[in-house]
Amino acid sequence: MLLPLLTILIISACHKKDDPVVVEKQETIAFVKPANFPEPTYRLADNPVTTDGFALGKVLFYDGLLSRDGTISCASCHIQANAFTHHGHDVSHGIDDRLGTRNSPPIQNLAWSTSFFWDGGVHDLDLQPIAPIENPVEMDDKMNNVVDKLQRNNRYQQLFEKAFGSPGINSTRMLKALSQFMVVLVSADAKYDRYIAGKESFSDAEKRGLALFEQQCASCHRPPLFTDNSFRNNGVAPRPFGTDYGRYMITLREDDKLKFKVPSLRNIALTAPYMHDGRFGSLESVLNHYDNGFYNSPTLDPAFKNGLTLSADDKQDLIAFLKTLSDKGFITDPRFAPPPGFVQGN
Ligand code: HEC
Ligand code: HEC
């Protein structure tokens, strides 16, 4: 589905309260379905992406006002240069330097996700931001308080009116605007995509890596999204204390114990550390895990029951292939970049 191209006014986000709305530059934006992607699952018809809706969503995403003390924005843990992950942090790092328990996933291609979070605890992108806003170790505020703060802010009064065509700030509108920003974060122009389209060639190592990937990995990390949106146990050992049982914590079904959502591998070279708790610092250590490092348990995926053997060369070839999934255009796209005056913080 292709929505018509829209012209977007990127609006500068300063943190001061009553700044006038500054129109900084004009660019073109649209939600565009990449040719090799399936139809999106997000119901775009219920929340069509508009120029001003996207612009509002972006200002909200980069604004610390959504947190209790003004210091933590969505972008604190979702950084564009790292495909909107919190690079370098094993578990998320929120307000008052409090630590969470899980690694921050990328925000990319969410219009094709069927569930959110490592355990799939949220099914609707429009409800997802409530969790970080109200999480005491993330932004530690309350939705109604955030809405009050927005309502008292002249600049947001103008931005909401432009985005929705009538005055009024409420949580539904706020969440819809955040979704409009997030669904436009599409990553589909990596070297891999250009290779598939016949526009670029692969080195021998990349070709060997792709062949290995198709044999050993693609059943779960299925192209073009590099996930099949299922929950699996890939043999990551539970921690001795405070075991995260993943999907089980949502369904309470024994056979979901230690299963986590299969993460997309797009931009994977940019998003270390890896796994739901960020336990592996490099792709080498991930591949050492897959090279027979599996923790055996009743829910271990059948794909791994007989182990998996990767030679040192296989690992290098797989890494060469995984690096072809990096999308430089996505991580440097000025439409998604922090607004002027944005301070990254922790
Ligand atoms: C303190 C760090 C932190 C902040 C702030 C934060 N997030 Fe996250 N985000 C995370 C972590 C960690 C997860 C994974 C949580 C889990 O799986 O239980 C996550 C998951 C997500 C997901 C799900 C991605 C997926 O593929 O499952 C989305 C979407 C998201 N965050 C958007 C936001 C938005 C929007 C905001 C601001 C309102 C925000 N985040 C603020 C750390 C953060
Ligand atoms: C049976 C399904 C399955 C197969 C096959 C599989 N994976 Fe995974 N993979 C997963 C799951 C599930 C996770 C997340 C586990 C967790 O977070 O604890 C994961 C995580 C990863 C991660 C970390 C992603 C991140 O964002 O942290 C990488 C990298 C990875 N896999 C690469 C591979 C490679 C390379 C292969 C082939 C050698 C492979 N996987 C085969 C299911 C699978």
TrEMBL record:
**One GO cellular component from the entry?**
periplasmic space
Q: Which residues form the Cytochrome c domain?
A: 204-326
Gene3D superfamilies under this entry?
Cytochrome c-like domain
The compartments listed are: Periplasm
Entry keywords, A to Z:
Heme, Iron, Metal-binding, Oxidoreductase, Periplasm, Peroxidase, Signal
Q: How is it modified after translation?
A: Binds 2 heme groups per subunit.
Co-factor(s)? heme
Name the InterPro entries on file: Cyt_c-like_dom (IPR009056), Cyt_c-like_dom_sf (IPR036909), Cytochrome_c_Peroxidase/MauG (IPR051395), Di-haem_cyt_c_peroxidsae (IPR004852), MauG/Cytc_peroxidase (IPR026259)
List the Gene Ontology MF annotations in alphabetical order. cytochrome-c peroxidase activity; electron transfer activity; heme binding; metal ion binding
Q: Where does heme c 2 bind?
A: 217, 220-221
Co-factor remark: Binds 2 heme groups.
- The molecule here is called Cytochrome-c peroxidase
Which organism encodes this protein? Chitinophaga flava
